[in-house]
Amino acid sequence: MSSSGGRRGGYVDPNWPPPFPLGKNDAPVIIYGYTPSFALSLLATILFVLFFLAHIWQGAIKYRTWYFITFPIGLFFEIIGYIARSMSAKVNPYNLIYFIIQYFFIVTAPVFLSAGIYTILSALIHRLGREHSVLPPKVILWIFVTCDAVATVAQIAGAALIGVKQSRREDPTAANNILLGGLAFQVFAIGIFIILSAVFIFRVRHKLRASGLTAFIAAFSAATLLIYLRTCFRLAETAEGLSGALSTREVFFGTLEFAPVVLAVLLLTIWHPGRCVGRSISATKNESYVR
């Protein structure tokens, strides 16, 4: 994984000079600020394909947890993003199309993962007792689904506009600010979600052992914090801009984007909510839960 930082004027790999003549989709510098690691991109692609298949099997076939459907959608976005990043690493790191596709899909994928996590809390409240929640589960669900929709629109618009500006060799500052606003809103929303989740888990702590959900709650909590860490990183990175230290050193991408998302997805693949919590988000106490 490359750790060499880019310069304000752009990065040119001394071992991989820009193509000559430049194609219409080629930039004279590598916009990443480094040449992406093919090994990291390939590993990510393979892992997310495996996770995607596992979640399709568990969510759509075995447990039919349709409330968790945004999670595999997020994984599909990750796959597209890392395939494009692999093309940058192996075929042409100067190609703007590869950069734009990987940037758009990798940046926006965790929004869909977060939406899946939001639905888990609502299902847990139905399972463990609505009286222990600060807000009714339907209210929590609608608030955070709405927040996620707003964050999704802002981040998709910002990421798409950044791609357009980069393809036209124009200043992407305004588009970057739109993306920054979407990420800031998502950081705020997840922060509130973490507080509500912590209050609920504290109030039901005496029920957890009897319910058999102790391990799942630990996995759910860790996955939420990992996605939050990743979103905070993206917010800081976007605030710096594409030429900042966080954007132009792949070690930060690997440890604060790739690793947290992979670990969060791994946890919720092993402790899938369909198996641990229930097949319906509005489960009743009489529902037969799958173990």
TrEMBL record:
<keyword id="KW-0472">Membrane</keyword>
<feature type="transmembrane region" description="Helical">
    <location>
        <begin position="213"/>
        <end position="231"/>
    </location>
</feature>
<dbReference type="Pfam" id="PF04479">
    <property type="entry name" value="RTA1"/>
</dbReference>
<keyword id="KW-0812">Transmembrane</keyword>
<dbReference type="InterPro" id="IPR007568">
    <property type="entry name" value="RTA1"/>
</dbReference>
<dbReference type="GO" id="GO:0016020">
    <property type="term" value="C:membrane"/>
</dbReference>
<keyword id="KW-1133">Transmembrane helix</keyword>
<feature type="transmembrane region" description="Helical">
    <location>
        <begin position="29"/>
        <end position="53"/>
    </location>
</feature>
<feature type="transmembrane region" description="Helical">
    <location>
        <begin position="65"/>
        <end position="84"/>
    </location>
</feature>
<feature type="transmembrane region" description="Helical">
    <location>
        <begin position="183"/>
        <end position="201"/>
    </location>
</feature>
<feature type="transmembrane region" description="Helical">
    <location>
        <begin position="96"/>
        <end position="118"/>
    </location>
</feature>
<feature type="transmembrane region" description="Helical">
    <location>
        <begin position="251"/>
        <end position="271"/>
    </location>
</feature>
<protein>
    <submittedName>
        <fullName>RTA1 like protein-domain-containing protein</fullName>
    </submittedName>
</protein>
<feature type="transmembrane region" description="Helical">
    <location>
        <begin position="139"/>
        <end position="163"/>
    </location>
</feature>
